[in-house]
């Protein structure tokens, strides 16, 4: 059985019977059969259904948000915002997919030559618990609009969310088999991935899981997209608007109780403003409201599982042993870890060189632009970086030297349907969202007519 448990109350919400091999095969057969029909539907038809999915999400956002909050502990206002963002990505692709996948004429010596975009088939999505609706919809909306069908292996602690997402598509009128939630644990992923009916895979999750899935996909010559961990830097230069930088930095690190791949996890401060910024930052962190995630005023909830809070606690404690200083927080109670700020963090400490997946951040100072750049890039990850400065010439100098997949200036790194999203190094490969994301799971077909 796969158990859904409320991390705040400890209550068992539901016990799910895991799919057998026969159940998996039947689901894949349904998906494969549906693909043969779905790929022939018009963009207009798909668009109407995708807009209905958006309507369903907005109409019943409270129902879906409460499922998120009960199952993984996200504060309810943030869960509602997540559901609303899912509606946005559905609308975005419903309105733009046809243009994004239109055949592109190319002038050659042929009578006619062009590039055609056609769907691949059944795509397996392996998705995490931290944004249990958004991570799925940012895959599903473009994949379905492109003419593919999807099967979802959700995180074992958010299987109720997976069921609700399938419900969204069915309520919107999508035919059965277009999108299915597979009730399977991680040990059965390979069985699904190696099946000849599955043509590609996308995974958002840990480096270990990504490496294993990429290895299996590579062995069977199947397309894969990986969105893995991150350790984004928040870089505050001495000319930054400190008020705006403070507000943004607190949100960038502590929203979703710090459980985000693109959260700002390393706070890099110019030495001339470090003292003032640090004291004001700590004040704001201390003021964050922690408590029952079902209460609207709660900003910091519990982590999704107690072992996750223990991992952050270990990283904090090991950094302290190496010389870091706790300015606030550092205390754990079961799955709750108090919002934590550490000063005097060096590049050798876990708080700098590992991904911290919870409400804790380390402060490191720099003196020069060159030193800041070295600190930004001194990580195994490459999802994104936020630069806070009023000097646009500095920004233009730094951007080409930054190794991350995204650079945001005077703003937190965030995913937006209109912009490509993805990383470099151990943060993965491939892109989601925008026209780049919808073209990941299509056959880019060259047509040459003499």
TrEMBL record:
Protein name: Succinate-semialdehyde dehydrogenase / glutarate-semialdehyde dehydrogenase
Protein keywords: NADP, Oxidoreductase
Coiled coil regions in record: none
Sequence similarity: Belongs to the aldehyde dehydrogenase family.
PANTHER family noted in UniProt: SUCCINATE SEMIALDEHYDE DEHYDROGENASE [NAD(P)+] SAD (PTHR43217)
UniProt xrefs under InterPro entries: Ald_DH/histidinol_DH, Ald_DH_C, Ald_DH_CS_CYS, Ald_DH_N, Aldehyde_DH_dom, ALDH_GabD1-like, GABD/Sad-like
Any matching Pfam family: Aldedh
GO molecular function: aldehyde dehydrogenase [NAD(P)+] activity; succinate-semialdehyde dehydrogenase (NAD+) activity
Domain Aldehyde dehydrogenase: 5-447
